[in-house]
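Single Protein Entry

Contents — chain, fold
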Amino acid sequence: MKSIHTDKAPKAIGPYVQGNIVNGLLFASGQVPLSPETGEVVGTTIKEQTEQVLKNISAILETVESDFDHVVKTTCFLKDMNDFAAFNEVYATAFTNNLPARSAVEVARLPKNVLVEIEIIATVNN
């Protein structure tokens, strides 16, 4: 197992790593819309927050020389399922070629009271 870290994505806010590579798969911890520089929440709308989450995921993928086309599974946590359509609009901008399998669920609360969190599993060559 190889742990992943990049300063281009937010530092873990608990006892976990940004991701681990095991048997050619990256298991990335859930990303919330935090600025990597400040650790503060970015955006107030589901669209703004989803954009930041995808930027954070992209940074982690770049660290292992991968990209959204290699993501095989996502799990998406939404504070309010009424945001589902707006969330999908932004989500679709990242996943354009190879669509991953996906689960999307509404949850009571997310860290720092954000509106969205996404975790991924992706293939890597490392």
Q: What stands out?
A: The longest helix spans residues 46-63. The CA atoms of residues 80 and 106 lie 6 Å apart.
